[in-house]
Design brief:
Layout (H helix, E strand, L loop, with lengths): L5 E2 L3 E5 L5 H8 L2 H7 L7 H18 L3 E6 L5 E8 L7 E6 L8 H16 L4 E7 L3 H9 L3 E8 L2 E9 L6
Antiparallel strand pairs: 1-2, 2-3, 3-4, 4-5, 6-8, 7-8
């Protein structure tokens, strides 16, 4: 997994692993994080384990998955950013930051690192994302990255916005 280590000016990113289950589950069940990530549903420890196992398999199969990011010189998870294998055409970008660290630009910085890796190292042609329409902070991040809204839909009674970005369009 050493090949998948990413760095930015302020952050270090590494793939999530089974040993991260407790810390990652704690982050994912935080009411502020899960509000938009899991449609405000508190996921079980087993579901979190399944996400981690899928990420490990995706790194092995596709070269991408979920990275955890850390402030430089810290061992405490600041958030996560990654690419989910959602379709053969394009992976889906996800990200989230520990609420105590909101407003520092970490989500954008981590997502930029993931997009750069996807386009520059893996040669991806397109990355997609979806976001709950009320999630203005994540919409700002997607647009700051250079992603363009492609459509809007109601899914499970919630308005979702869909975004995409192609090689050469990212604001990296």
């Amino acid at each position: 997994m050493i090949a998948y280590l990413l760095h930015t000016e302020r952050l270090s990113l590494r793939p999530c692993q089974n040993e991260d289950l407790d810390s990652l589950h704690e982050l994912w069940i935080d009411a502020n994080v899960r509000h938009f990530l899991f449609d405000d549903r508190q996921i079980s420890r087993e579901e979190a384990q399944s996400f981690i196992e899928t990420s490990v398999a995706n790194f092995a199969n596709y070269g991408y998955g979920i990275w955890l990011f850390f402030e430089n010189q810290s061992d405490s998870i600041a958030g996560f950013a990654g690419l989910l294998h959602s379709s053969p055409q394009a992976p889906s970008l996800i990200f989230g930051t520990r609420p105590l660290l909101w407003g520092r630009g970490y989500a954008k910085e981590a997502a930029q690192a993931v997009l750069s890796y996807g386009f520059d190292v893996l040669g991806l042609e397109c990355v997609i994302a979806d976001v709950d329409e009320p999630n203005e902070a994540s919409i700002r991040v997607l647009e700051a990255l250079g992603m363009s809204q492609t459509r809007r839909a109601i899914v499970n009674g919630r308005p979702l916005l869909y975004y995409e970005i192609h090689t050469g369009q990212a604001h990296l």
